[in-house]
Amino acid sequence: MVQGQIVAANQPFLDISESDHGQSPHEQSSRPPSVEDDDEGHLIYRHGDILRDRYKVINTLGEGTFGKVVKVVDSRNEKAVALKIIKNVEKYREAAKLEINVLEKLAEADPESRRLWVIMLDWFDYHGHMCITFEMLGLSVFDFQKENNYQPYPMEQVQHISYQMCYAVKFLHDNRLTHTDLKPENILFLNSDYDVSYHTKKKREIRRVRDTRIKLIDFGSATFDHEHHSTVVSTRHYRAPEVILELGWAQPCDVWSMGCILFELYLGITLFQTHDNQEHLAMMERILGPLPYRMCRKTKTKYFYHGRLDWDDKSAAGRYVRENCKPLKRYIPMIDEDHRNLFDIVFRMLDYEPSQRITLAEALDHPFFAKLPAELLLHKQDQRSSSLSMEVKSGLRERSHSLSR
After folding, report:
1. What is the structure's pLDDT at 25?
2. Is the pLDDT of residue 232 over 60?
3. What is the spatial distance between Cα 42 and Cα 195, in angstroms, rounded to a whole number?
4. Per-residue DSSP letters for 339-350?
5. Is 199 helix (H, G, I), strand (E, B) or coil?
6. Residue 53: is its pLDDT beyond 70?
7. Is pLDDT above 90 for 233?
8. End-to-end CA distance of the chain
């Protein structure tokens, strides 16, 4: 086995009831009168509540279909951490167990979290709510952009953010794992403090984040190669064509999502703003050209007629696509080296054919990232460390051999 490689457990996923993180099955199922859920299964909590005699609730950081993320203070060290409280609903509980399993495997392969994934600190079952504590991070790149009136990120920040995204996701791919839900909401700044300047043309203040270091979060849908692959994965706007066409998917579906994210970071707009499969495919054809005939013929979905997308350009939906989408090259605001490289890597990430899509190993060496300072090129540092380690091992073997003589 390659050193440091993740291997998913062959045994069933974590049995929470047997873990020393949690309580006994009897204690888990008994709920004191003070513990209540709302109609959707969210835990009802208030500021100042203390969970598990350890975590003091400060405020809510965010909410999703899975549950809520809460800022809490850990009484053991008085540090603020993020507590993900999963709904008291069976399918979300099971998803949380899968996420815990993935995070533990990541920790085995990368104990210091050098590959930019969020660190899990603890997990436990709180009266039917799976709870996971994480290191405290800043805003997501989406929330920062939203609070900044969807102002695009500057070119050099797009380069650093997207480079780190490639580096982090490549680590997953190298270990036979697909994230499956890459989107701006799942990329968090380590620290989202910012400076403010006044934009005279737009007549408003513009925020500029000071520190562009990021980490990936939300591994609840992450899937190992050998595991069952759900038919539909990814959040709509970042969903690859092979997923929509139900042709099967693997790591390249993450790369497609990253192409959409890169576009959004730089232009401040969502590339595929739709909620309908057929319209989504029509947008793809408008922006990227016709879908490959092979994919159209192979799919069992109902979106095609005689190998072509069944789409009426003259319908209301057709007009919407025509008016809101244009060929990708026409989004390029200016022609210079940085913009040529940016749109080249986006084009290559958005190749329809998964097998032809750029790999993340190739992406890390793409000219788009060439201007990043050497200290930010993490994969180059890894290569040097690996080379040095091999030289040291080789030297030790030679020394051992000479001493044995």
Report:
1. 38
2. yes
3. 36
4. HHHHHHHHHHHT
5. strand
6. yes
7. yes
8. 32
Q: Is 15 a catalytic residue?
A: no
Tell whether 84 is in a known binding site. Answer: yes
* pLDDT at residue 390 in the model: 66
Active-site option among 125, 181, 254, 351? 181
Structure tokens at 164: 């780190």
Diameter of the chain measured on Cα atoms: 85
The DSSP call for residue 58 is E
214-216/204-209 β-pairing: unpaired
Question: Please, are residues 137 and 189 in contact by the beta-carbon 8 Å criterion?
Answer: yes
Its pTM stands at 0.87
Q: Are 115 and 167 in contact (CB under 8 A)?
A: yes
Sign of CA dihedral 313, 315, 317, 320: positive
Residue 255 clears pLDDT 80, i.e. is over it: yes
Within 10 angstroms of residue 348's Cβ, the number of other Cβ atoms is 17
Q: Contact, 260 vs 351, CB < 8 A?
A: no
Q: Among 119, 154, 117, 139, which residue's Cα sits nearest to residue 189?
A: 139
Distance CA 296, CA 304 (A): 7
Q: In this structure, are residues 57 and 45 in contact, taking their beta carbons and an 8 Å threshold?
A: yes
- Reference 282, options 331, 306, 234, 315; nearest CA is 315
Q: What is the per-residue pLDDT for 399?
A: 60
**Quick check: helix, strand or coil at residue 144?**
helix
Query: Over the stretch 364-392, which tens digit does the pLDDT of each residue have?
Result: 999 999 999 999 999 999 998 877 766 66
Provide the residue type at 229 as one letter: H
Q: What is the DSSP string of 163-225?
A: HHHHHHHHHHHHTTEE-----GGGEEES---EEEEEETTTTEEEEEES---EEE---TT-EET
Residue type, 109: A
Q: How far apart are CA 405 and CA 403, in angstroms?
A: 5
Task: Count Cβ atoms below 10 Å from residue 168 Cβ, excluding itself.
Answer: 22
